[in-house]
Design a protein that fits this description.
Elements lengths: L6 E4 L9 H17 L6 H13 L5 H10 L3 H13 L1 H8 L8 H10 L3 E4 L7 H7 L12 H4 L6 H11 L6 E5 L2 H10 L3 E5 L18 E3 L2 H13 L12
Parallel strand pairs: 1-2, 1-3, 3-4, 4-5
């Protein structure tokens, strides 16, 4: 019998922070750097490489994009990556540090008031929580550690386990909300967690490779997310028997 849901883990990029401006400006910076270094690449060619990186479940999407375009030229990759890192502050200023998804503060407040424990499960720098505090949403989270503060990165399921331990719940008592099949849904299902994909952004067309990587729900809006979470609290999905035949 499914266990009672007591907690919800949130990825940051996608569900909470749309990252729309950030993703666009990162792509523009990478293309500009390659072109400045003598590599001709069209917008369509770049999009094809981006699609490839998403389809192959590249853990670090931008690294894989650079690798594919540079054709293993590490000196070129290092120049492009250096230019990308040197423009981080500029992008943060451009996007106001955090692109808060409309409706998220209200949903977090409601879930917390309904007695659910909220935690982060995100590949983010440690200062992300400070940004969330400025936008008034960190207050709803009992567990606030991210990859930059615990030195674990998804898809390593230990990051999700760390979040569950921080909330004092078993994985089967938690829901994972994220935007990526590879980094969010896969480790959540490995641990027997309910998994909701917020279909958004760069990974919106990413596809599972087998039935045990399929989200228990796909949602496209904050309203749909609230409905899905509450439906699982009322009736947790059957997460047993995920492995199936080899």
């Amino acid at each position: 019998m499914p266990q009672q849901i007591k907690a919800v883990l949130f990825d940051v990029g996608g569900p909470l922070d749309t990252e729309t401006i950030m993703d666009r400006e990162i792509d523009e910076q990478i293309m500009a750097s390659f072109r400045a270094n003598g590599v001709t690449i069209s917008d369509d060619e770049y999009e094809a490489v981006n699609r490839w990186a998403v389809d192959v479940f590249a853990a670090k999407t931008y690294h894989s994009i650079m690798w594919k375009i540079a054709q293993d030229d590490m000196a070129l990759i290092e120049r492009v990556e250096s230019e990308l890192m040197n423009t981080v502050h500029q992008r943060n200023v451009s996007r106001g540090d955090f692109e808060l998804r409309e409706g998220i503060p209200e949903l977090l407040a409601e879930l917390s008031a309904e007695g659910l424990l909220l935690g982060l499960a995100a590949n983010q720098p440690a200062d992300t929580v400070t940004k969330m505090e400025r936008f008034g949403i960190a207050q709803y989270f009992t567990y606030k550690e991210v990859s930059g503060s615990i030195n674990l990165r998804k898809p390593d399921p230990r990051l999700l386990l760390h979040s569950c331990e921080g909330l004092g719940v078993e994985p089967q008592e938690a829901i994972m909300v994220g935007d990526r099949i590879d980094n969010d849904i896969v480790p959540a299902r490995m641990l027997g967690m309910a998994a909701i994909r917020f279909v958004s952004g760069r990974h919106s067309e990413q596809q599972p490779r087998s039935w045990n990587e399929v989200p228990h729900a796909d949602v496209y809006s904050v309203n749909e997310l609230g409905v899905a979470i509450r439906s699982f609290v009322t009736k947790p999905p059957n997460v047993s028997g995920d492995d199936g035949p080899e």
